[in-house]
Design a protein that fits this description.
The protein is of the alpha+beta class. The protein has one domain. It contains three helices and seven strands. Strands 1, 2, 3, 4, 5, 6 and 7 form a seven-stranded mixed beta sheet that branches. A hairpin with a 5-residue loop joins strand 6 and strand 7. The two termini are 23 Å apart. 12% of the residues are buried.
């Protein structure tokens, strides 16, 4: 499970629909976390003919979606949590259930089961 702070600069976007039956999360790939790094990668792609022969502009984010309401939990006690660094070091781990957790404004934690998506 991955617990994150909504104010962390690594978080690109979070969208939760009104009834929370859909949630989308986007986290910057570490080397593209800054706008400067993303702009450089984009410029390199368009200005270097070798880059244009590649698969395209690098993916700047890992995106995740949940199509179920989150589970509300009161505490993180007893839950094994990955830090953002651990999560990124595993290159957005796949192959087993993933859960994103964050603390709501009401003080409880919301836990979504998510899948990694690509565009």
């Amino acid at each position: 499970m991955f617990f994150f702070d909504l104010k962390d600069k690594a978080i690109n976007k979070i969208y939760v629909n009104r009834d929370s039956t859909e949630a989308r999360f986007s986290i910057y790939v570490e080397k593209y976390q800054t706008k400067v790094a993303r702009d450089k990668a984009t410029n390199d792609y368009y200005n270097d003919p070798r880059e244009r022969n590649s698969a395209g502009i690098p993916s700047f984010t890992g995106s995740f979606i949940s199509l179920n309401k989150p589970m509300k939990i009161n505490s993180l006690e007893g839950i094994d949590i990955l830090t953002l660094k651990q999560f990124r070091d595993k290159l957005f781990p796949q192959g087993y259930p993933m859960y994103f957790i964050y603390k709501s404004e009401e003080g409880c934690y919301l836990k979504w089961e998510v899948i990694h998506i690509t565009y």
